[in-house]
Amino acid sequence: MFPKRALLSPLFALALALAGCSCQYEPTWDSLDSRPLPGWYDQAKFGIFVHWGVFSVPSYGSEWFWWYWQKQQQPSYVDFMKKNYPPDFQYQDFAPLFTAEFFDAKRWADIFAASGAKYVVLTTKHHEGFTLWGSKYSWNWNAVDTGPKRDLVDEVATAVRANGNLRLGLYHSLFEWFHPLFLQDAANVFKTNLFPTSKSLPELYEIVNKYKPEVLWSDGDGDAPYQYWNSTSFLAWLYNESPVRETVVTNDRWGVGTMCQHGGFYTCTDRYNPGHLLKHKWENCMTIDQKSWGFRRDAQLSDFLTIEHLVATLVETVSCGGNLLMNVGPTHDGRIVPIFEERLRQMGQWLGVNGEAIYNTSAWRAQNDTATPGIWYTWKPQEKTIYAVFLQWPTGGNVTLNVPVVSEGKTQVTLLGYAQPLKWTSVKPTGLTVFLPSFSIGQMPCYWAWTLKLTGAG
User: Which GO terms describe its cellular component (predicted)?
Assistant: First the structure.
């Protein structure tokens, strides 16, 4: 049904030839990894991850509920089911309860845009195998045949694009915990490939052709190598022939051994935050709820990261050349609960003042300052502008930066959100001390981190 080797269509090949383009990608990592990352992704810096599925119904423990309950039989999950559901209740019985009656895709898109995010990545299918669209390859285990009886992916895609400020990304799990064909292939030590051929790969082609995502976020290799998943052939098709071949970006989770080695951007591990500059573009995917990607009814207030922590994570990530993908987990009925919405809108408030130091920036020659802890740098080389974001307001009313090279009469320093230039004095051997305005709390341009903008500095 799908080619073992992705080839260019004759018309597309002709168009490339006429344009003088030699950008056909072969199904090898050397060729695929040579593809330049589309520029929009690096400029965006910040996206929202959304984990939603049947696991949102029990909403207990984590999105790995089925695995922990049935496979590992963890006592807390087993006890939860014994106390709350009949003895013969199966995980599949949760699907009709995945109702989404309060789901409003436009409201979601409005909240995500208000956060300052530039792209949204929705879980189309997690490891449980339930697809949020009416997949031809997931009969009766999808959101159109059961549960909400709606194409949730289409609703999100439509609302995201209509918003005008967001790009669409789709997450897809390669493997499924309990699918009989995957279990059969695993028992054969992946010498057979019944599952990817009949299920996983057809789904990938389906969502790309139907929804045209600009981020394709793969996950869940099931301990199988990329050859089993036929990942390189699929990616060659994606980069050469797909409807998003020019703009799509991909991550690094395409089989055992590919993470942090191959792909458009690296994720390396969940909540990856190296704290230093990497040679390859990377992404920090992390959760507002520290203990789960999916919604949890049993979450405590202390489980949710504060806005101060989230802003600091964004600043550190961008300073080190990464993008931040911040996760929320909606409820089974389609709500983004108030604490998630509050964090997203707070992030948007901060970016409304300081976004100039985040969007369209590059990593500078120094990531953080060595004189004053908690200061992170970005810059815009075209404008020869340096940004220094400090996470704590100094008690002495001034802040010292020892990395920038400044010159009297040329260097100007401003505070984003404050109109007047700031006074400063140079320090030896390099750097400067900046004298901050005296603010009351109500006069602060923002409340969680502040940005110094330096022009005419080296």
Answer: lysosome
The DSSP line for 138-187 is: STTSBTTTSTT-S-HHHHHHHHHHHHSS-EEEEEEES--TT-HHHHHHHH
Residue 419: C-alpha distances to residues 283, 358, 446 (Å):
33, 19, 14
Q: Read off the pTM.
A: 0.93
CATH number at residue 396: 2.60.40.1180
Q: How far is CA 430 from the centre of its chain?
A: 37
C-alpha distances (whole Å) from 371 to each of 363, 364, 430, 455 are: 19, 17, 11, 20
Residues 301 and 443 reside in one and the same domain: no
Buried b (16+ CB within 10 A) or exposed e, 111-126: bbbbbbbbbbbbbbbb
Does 343 lie in the same domain as 289? yes
Helices (H) and strands (E) in the chain, counts: 14, 14
Q: What is the DSSP letter of 374?
A: T
State the DSSP code for 223: T
CATH number at 231 reads: 3.20.20.80
Count of other CB atoms within 10 angstroms of residue 383: 10
CA dist., res. 398 & res. 446, Å (int): 17
